[in-house]
Amino acid sequence: MRYEVNDPVRLTDDGRAILAIDQTLLPNRVAYIRLETPKEMFTALKRFQVRGAPCIGIFAAYAMFLQAKVFAGECQDKETFYQMMHTFAKYLSTARPTAVNLPWALKRMERTAANNMRRSFETIIEALRKEAENIHEQNIETCFTIANYGLVLVNDGDGILTHCNAGALATSRYGTALGPLILGAEKGMKFRAYVDETRPRLQGSRLTAYELTNAGVDTTLICDSMASLVMSQGKVNACFVGADRVAKNGDTANEIGTAGLAILAQHYHIPFYVFCPTSTIDVTCDDGSKIVIEERDPDEIKNEFFRSPVAPEKAKCYNPAIDITDAGLITAIITEQGINYPPYDFN
Ligand code: MRU
């Protein structure tokens, strides 16, 4: 596979570690981290150095391949090997509880190992490498297809409001929700992007604004609280967001603030579109009420990205990372298989 500089995760050339862009340092510094041990891999997810649902899935697949090589050298029999793989997968999956691409990729890798159990360790490892590369390559193709579908929904010159980051950094290459904007720019289209800064982790200002300006898209950063005014001024023709997990009925878990945006969009009669690969759809989950909401360190709200605390020490903070957008607020869900309109019933 041909790796590109802007792949947020990939294997190192020596094939012994994952090389990832440290997303916590953007937009000020583009630096790579090398991740080799289970602890390093877990921590990279926990610290959001690697983030975005599909990207986490690709990362997990490479992590399983790398660990499989270590386990194969440590144990004699396949049963122990499989157990070690399973334990590692469980460990990694606890780093981010909401994004379904993480358990999805881990299961796919475990299945690959199980399907090859009768073969030599060498063959199993090779099958795991291929599967991880397939997951990565499929995501690249998927994002491109999604970007093309997205372009059908908007007109040249439209204002598009987006939240958090669903670009190449969160996936690979075009991204999901940012795909139509980036592909559109390549085709000479002139969209106007409004980017929510996305408190408290600022993925919008740090990552989305970085990706869109680099792609030559007309980009205006706004605070999350400004979305209503910007919509009321007629500047927004559509909202484009990604997803961490979509339930069977279309209820969608995504970065905190997404649901509020969907409610505003309905008020102003602005179409609200969710973009995701089918791997983000959790067909075992009937509706949004069953989705586990990830909670982050409350300290993020007061301290992260500020020189000194922006609230008194005694003030408590509640910091849920994800909210659920009711399917009834979503105009369409766009996957690599097409544009899905309500009522949603994914199988
Ligand atoms: O920074 P994260 O991992 O919490 O990002 C969440 C999102 O904003 C996304 O929209 C999501 O993971 C989909 S990314 C294509």
List keywords for this structure.
Rossmann fold; binds 5-S-methyl-1-O-phosphono-5-thio-D-ribulose; alpha/beta; 15% strand; 347 residues; Four Helix Bundle (Hemerythrin (Met), subunit A); globular; 4-stranded mixed beta sheet
Which helices and strands occur, and which strands form pairs?
Layout: E1 9-11, E2 18-21, E3 32-35, H1 38-46, H2 53-74, H3 78-93, H4 101-115, H5 121-152, E4 159-162, H6 179-186, E5 192-196, H7 203-214, E6 218-222, H8 227-232, E7 238-241, E8 245-247, E9 252-255, H9 258-267, E10 272-275, E11 281-282, H10 299-303, E12 322-325, E13 332-335, E14 338-340
Parallel strand pairs: 4-5, 4-7, 5-6, 7-10, 8-11, 10-13
Antiparallel strand pairs: 1-2, 2-3, 8-9, 9-12, 13-14
Helix pairs in contact: 2-3, 2-4, 2-5, 3-4, 4-5, 5-6
The structure holds 5-S-methyl-1-O-phosphono-5-thio-D-ribulose (MRU).
Provide an overview of this structure:
By secondary structure, this protein is of the alpha/beta class. Helix content is 39%, strand content 15%. Strand 8 and strand 9 (252-255) form a beta hairpin. Helix 2 packs parallel to helix 4 (101-115) and helix 2 runs antiparallel to helix 5 (121-152). The longest helix has 32 residues, at 121-152. The two termini are 31 Å apart.
